[in-house]
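Review box. Two proteins, two foldings.
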Amino acid sequence: MFIKKTVAVLKLFLVTSSICCYSQTNSLSGNIYDDNDKGLSYVNVYLKKTQIGNMSNDEGFYEIKNIPRGTYTLVISSLGYKTKSIKITFKNNTNISRDFSLKPDNSLDEIVVSGTLRPVSKSASPVPVEVYSKAFFKKNPTPSIFESLQNVNGVRPQLNCNVCNTGDIHINGLEGPYTFVLIDGMPIVSGLSTVYGLTGIPQALIDRVEIVKGPASTLYGSEAVGGIINIITKKTLNSPVLFADSFSSSWGEINTDIGITYKVSEKTEGLMGINYFNYQNIIDNNGDGFTDLTLQHRISIFNKFNFERENNKKFSLAFRYVYEDRWGGETNWNKSFRGTNQVYGESIYTNRWETFGTYELPTSENIRFQFSANGHYQDSFYGETSYDAEQLIGFGQLIYNKQLGEKHDLLLGAAYRYTFYDDNTFATLNENGFDNSPSIIHLPGIFAQDEISLSDRKKLLLGVRWDNNSIHGNIFSPRVNYKWSSRNKSNIVRISAGNGFRVANVFTEDHAALTGAREIVFEGELAPETSWNTNINYVKKISTKNAFINLDASAFFTYFTNRILPDYETDPTKIIYANLEGYSISKGISLNSDITFQNRLSINIGTTFMDVSIYENSIKKRQLLTESFSGVWSISYRFKHNGIKIDYTGNIYSPMKLPRLSDSDPRPENSPWFSIQNVQITKKFGSHWELYAGVKNLLNFTPSATSIARSFDPFNTQVDFDSSGQAIPTPNNPNALIFDPSYVYASNQGIRGFIGVRYTFF
């Protein structure tokens, strides 16, 4: 019996082996070269819609074995080079040898959508759009997209609180509420989530980030005043089957991103991403009695579906859920003190859901419907001050794109946005000041855009938008853009002018208004802010024997009316919000330079000079927390034979005016020059694994230990006040200070090491 079973097993093995050998003995091999016939290492070579592929070695040689018979699309791709795709057929026992040559991708022909709401090459877009790939963010791995943007020229993540470390993103000196953040073109991160919604976006799923600086309200409506940041997620067709990235720092931070591509059915593909971040280490290196870094526990789950339809019509649907528990405060705080006046802590629970998608109508015309919805629920305590808030936003727009003749590309759209906001503050009390009255805003709008090809090298873009705000009435937003390029596209000039508007809800946007340290005061009814912007952009492409150089320079000017600014200085116990009775101007110049050498060295340097000032009663004042100069850089070198890459990244900022309590406040009026610098070494192992390690904040820069005023008395129990509520000088408080955590411009997190690993399976 044993012999019979053994023979049967052997027969089954031989039959199975013969079938496998018969059907999978095909192979493909060859070499991949650049324009100078040098071998290109670490080039991805794979069969589309399969898990079969490999990477070229140090000399550019690649080999793929065990390929089943059939016809495939072979894809050859590498960062910095144009992707090549060809059809190739394998029969039985076919051994194909094929060499390929890749041309440099000068990053001028990337496809962008943020400037005109339709796919267009970057060089052809009349609107200047900056594009940052996932490879750019890998040079300085961070646990959130908020921190990742610290090395983008003219963009600065700004912390707004020394205690809970929440923040927003500044573009060209304008505060976070003026920055419109989108995911796949949909308005997801806005309003209340301007402060809390920028964390937890799984970076494993990010394909690129597109940034448009300057007003974009003609296409995107309210809030797109300072610019937009559009986070583009990966397509299922281009995504690895499995991607994982996990790192930990010497401070005890743990961050993990996982991405999975899977098939739901023959015509439905899914892309799932999970982000998990945990930091539970109480550190107080500056000795002020408060945590230097907020403790956080966060999980985010993202899922995107692509549905295959007839005539290649698009239908995608995505969901995201985020939960976060964060707290900062006195080092002896625990949850039993939440909401009490015994030990100070700021504790924030956030629950957030999002959904968005695009559906192209089954018509011969190019008509698509885009939609998004999100709900944000927050349960917070700032000391003993409670803040419970709920926000619901629904958005939908119908877009019609039509080519009229050879010269006109017309885009028409109709949009509707619904916003519901409720909290437990006086912001949602009705006129009698007693009954709760949630804010409900209806915002329908229509827009039109015509991109006119004046010639092969000249384009004119005209756009206009009309919105009707249910509270503030009609709002009109026009814009005009002009683009000229040389014959070989090595010189491009863009000139633009446009309008932006924003309907503000202070409590949904400004964390400082929520801390228990100051009383909030509104002076009059807040009117919508408006801005007018002009921008001149010049792009120069230079090719030499040994390098490719891309220069991108811009000059910008923005004029604001009805601007809403927090006044910290009139009364140290209050934050006063009112429309500016004068005007505000933001102006400056910026320069980006990308240099790619043939010897595998690449350098990216960006600088911005700007002046953001407020003019009121014939007096010019510099805006708080705004630098006059900023610089960023990224220097990378890849060794040829050992799979090692070194990245050196950093930024530098000039002094900013800081929000002091009064002239007697001993804290400096301006921040010092400061720079955050990082270094990373990455080692590849085969085609699947990467190990990376490095040091963040090499110079160990941290703000002054006295950044929090009277950190030893967070409930002001030892402060004497006069009859009008003003602090008065006493022997124990000679400068008449109160507890204040709003004097912040940089993180208290000092130098730290980190180590991580990435795994990719195609």
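Next protein.
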Amino acid sequence: MFRVSSVLCFLGVLVFLSGCGDEPAADRPQQEPVHVASPGAESLIPRSVLFGNPERVAPELSPDGATIAYLAPVDGVLNLWLMDASGDNPRQLTSDEDRGITQFLWTEDGRYILYLQDEAGEENTHVYRITVETGEVLDLTPFPGVKAYVSATDRDQPGRVLIDMNKDNRMFFDVYSCDLETGELEMVMDNTGFTADGDMIVGFSTDEDMNVRLQVTIDPDNGDMTVHHRWTADSPWEVLKSYPGQDQWFPDRFDKEGTALFVRSNLDRDKTALFRYDIASRTETLITGSDTSDIGSVLYDPSTGEPVMASYYYLRRSLEVLDPSIRADMDFLQGHREGDLSVISRDSSNTLWIVAYNTIDNPAVYYLYDRNSMEARELFTAIPALEDYSLRPMETAEIPARDGLILPSYVTTPDPVRYGEGPWPTIMMVHGGPWYRDYYGYDPLTQLFADRGFAVLQVNFRGSTGFGKAFCNASFKEWGRAMQNDVSDGVLWAVEQGVADPDRVVILGGSYGGYAALAGAVFTPELYCAVVDFFGPSNLITFMETVPPYWKPMQALLNMRIGDPEDPEERAMLEERSPLNHVAEIDVPIFIAQGANDPRVVQAESDQMVEALRAMNIPVVYVLYTNEGHGFAHEENTLDFAGRVEEFLYLSVPGPGIECELFTPVPGASVLLQGTE
């Protein structure tokens, strides 16, 4: 059973803040990259190891447990492969030569694999069906400019799936039933956009038989949310729960009988917990919760539909077994090897599991676990080449903000034998979202910088998710202020601890982190010697005016969290907190990277910032990736970006104690380099 509520598509707006703009003017001066390398560069971890495609990744068991699908590169592009569960007989299934494949799932009978793919980073994903036996590919949603995704499957109805798609109105997703053999689509729920009382319909959820049973709406004026329920397709919608937009009451799934919901809720509490909600009686029963962090992933039994395990994540990941039937399995697996453990795939009998261990040294080591024999066999490691190098450990820290809020954080320092004891040049690396978070574990950028002689600081500033409602809500309308103060306080803490050299701190980030990097340059220029922004908004007004159309139903929540551009006072606040309007404060070099097809933070956000910087004669390197969106899908672009950033920092950060691998532009990278002035 695969189940995704379509409202997740809209709530995803609040996780990643990620129209093409015009091409750069022909008369802008171009600059050839400088080729540099430090004397010890031959002993550095190559960027090709850190940023190249993984060797194999994302294994998924077929329903019968006989076959494993996984992703592996072919000529630098990730494609689907198959192998027997024994590990034998690997064979290539797809032959994509462009974007690569990153999201896929088996159908319930194992005849097909479905995968999602857009064209050039614009995020209008199509749903493709590939026949496992023949390799035949069919686009199930062949509609230009439309975003589609699989929202539900049912093992009792293996011949069809539900697909959510915004074909009729780009703001709203309808629900379609898709016949997997013929590809025929039939609308089963028309999203009319609005309810009779004027609320906007942001999504639907289904029960275990793929019946549409829940409808989620939002009040466009104040962001209040309402979950409606119906028993059958002929029943009227009834209000199940209403709550303020700053709270959460989110149904995970129905139980097997369809009479109760498993709900993530922080109503009347700070940390989100898992509840069972009886629909008929409107009563809730707590299943599990924590005083230190929100509930994370929940593992459900594929046969009973009951929750069997939950995870929590404060500074490190912890697991709570909810069903004694898997206690022995988890005890064995947690003792089998080091690393944060995740169960990522199971066969339909729940006998075979694929588990992954995440460590500082590797993003994932995968094992096939047989519950009957209690034996675990290693399948493969995502990046085996990392085993030839020594990666730097990550330390946890709790950093006090100036108002007393505790910021869960991570610090990675360079090898003191090679680079001496601190303080070191330091990267303040700000995560995106901002309603996301930094985690403990392997990160290629962190390891790149630490290997080159930088300390790396990652601060979960207010607004980061997983630390409770009060921590998240403290970020409302605090872009460029309290949220930015948390980042600054992290830097000051690192200086005080003897980690960061105060004259050699770089602020770097993508998406919201890119905004924070620009904001650091204009609001606290004394803290930083260089700035790296990728995919970051520069003007909060123009950013909010150009979000994708399917974000529009959640506009009230964006206004609540960032600020309302239609309110004169808040518009003035947004203008004041936009880095574009303060470029005169910048006196350090800046590197900006942008995807030309980014639908979340459009190219104009970077274009206008670069134009303003050049008008003030502030040194800026601008790299436009013409076939990317809000992030990187092409290996050559990822490698090119990493090389350009490494070279930029080597040339921009003063003083000794930094090393650099030789940078040569990556052949095939789709780059438009808009030099420096």
